[in-house]
Amino acid sequence: MPFLLSFPHRLIAIYAVAIAIALVSGRALSADPASPQKDTAGYCRNETSRVLSGLDRIHVRDEFRIIYATQGPHALPNVRDINKNGIPDQVEDIATQMVTARRIYSQVIGLKQPLSMPRYARVKSIDVFLLNMKKGNGLAYDEVINYRLGFDGGDGRCTLRIDLKNNLPRQNVSPAHELFHLYQYSYSMFKARWFLEGTARWAEYALRPGAGPQKTLPATGEAVRSQVFSQTYRASGLWNRLAVITDPLGRLHLPQALAEMTYVDGSTVIHDDILHGPAFILAVFEELERLSISVSSRNGWNRYNWKETDQKSPVHDEEIFHAVMRALQKSATPVGLKDRRVKTLIEMDSQSFAPKS
Which residues form the signal peptide (predicted)? Predict the structure, then answer.
């Protein structure tokens, strides 16, 4: 005769099963990296790359690992080593430029280092791959990836990736430019190119001589859409103009040891102390950090794992611009805020781009 539970015991059994199902479902939901219920700070995915695995040399300096080859299709064209330390000068110079840029961005300007930010909680290093690139000088990746490279052992390591052309002249500032992109990615999920490339070009002048060219400020919403939102590198003209408005003097307070950084051949890394608007750019990053969190919450998106199309969508342009105007008003000098064109720009933003309550 089959064993039968009494009615009260049947209720208890059903209740226990329901709890077990709920617990299992809860674990499944929380493990889903794309689930809006949980923000995947420190998310890291595995990937293999035959090209990257073929690079067999590594030079480590602070959080940077410069990974390269001396043979094969991606071999360094120039392996000159004037200080006779066994490391090609080009490799050392790239590491020097990136350390110098990081010190300016974080210690002087005040930006938080990418590896200290929640999105990159699991990142162990910034891996810089020197490749025979057919197009462009560099590329920075926003995702955290474990490539399981041979010198990392069986478990590999979670890293951020930058690719650089393997024959860049030492004074080329692409390493600093690409590093600035990692700062952008660590603060917000937005990939509007007028912001990404415009401010990264501004950042180059932390190392380059002088200041970047400026553009006249747009006076209408349509002018902003056609002259700013549609641009990439040329958008730097707007950023440079706003930087000068907020900081007309434009002088960095560089520690002596930083100002005197040199490449292997003795040439200087930082050409002068001119850089307009670092406090403004810091304020922009902080405004976009808050906006990114707000947009994630509004749409039910994972805070650190938006779809690529959502990151690049022009639907965010007006909100980003409004955040930039908030940063401008916080950091501009009283004289700058009285400038006729600045007042026109802020009024236009309030009428055209401010969120409607």
Answer: 1-30
How many C-beta atoms lie closer than 10 Å to residue 230's C-beta? Answer: 14
pLDDT of residue 18 exceeding 80: no
- CA 290 to chain CA centroid, nearest Å: 15
Within the chain, where are the H helices?
7-31, 50-53, 89-103, 174-187, 193-204, 221-224, 236-246, 256-259, 278-299, 308-312, 317-331, 334-338, 340-352
Cα–Cα separations (whole angstroms), residue 343 to 76, 143, 204, 347, 348: 52, 39, 28, 6, 8
CA distance 153 to 260: 38
Pairing type for strands 138-140 and 159-165 reads: antiparallel
Span 214-251, pLDDT tens digits: 999 999 999 999 999 999 999 999 999 999 999 999 99
Q: How far apart are CA 38 and CA 301, in angstroms?
A: 9
CA distance 27 to 9: 27
State which amino acid sits at residue 216: T
Check: CB of residue 110 under 8 Å from CB of residue 278: yes
Q: For residue range 269-319, what is the model confidence (pLDDT) as tens digits? A: 999 999 999 999 999 999 999 999 999 999 999 999 999 999 999 999 999
Count of C-beta atoms within a 10 Å radius of residue 270: 22
Give the pair of three-digit tokens for residue 217: 């400020």
How many Å separate Cα 190 from the centre of its chain? 10
Which burial class, exposed, middle or buried, applies to 331 when counting CB atoms under 10 A from its CB (0-12, 13-18, 19+)?
buried
Helix axis angle for 317-331 and 340-352, nearest 10°, is: 140
Distance of alpha carbon 65 from alpha carbon 274, whole angstroms: 29
pLDDT averaged over every residue in the chain: 90
In order of 48, 91, 103, 104, 120, the CA distances from 59 in angstroms are: 21, 7, 19, 22, 22
Identify the burial level of 81 via C-beta atoms within 10 angstroms of its C-beta, where 0-12 means exposed, 13-18 middle and 19 or more buried: middle
Q: Which two tokens stand for residue 353?
A: 């781009």
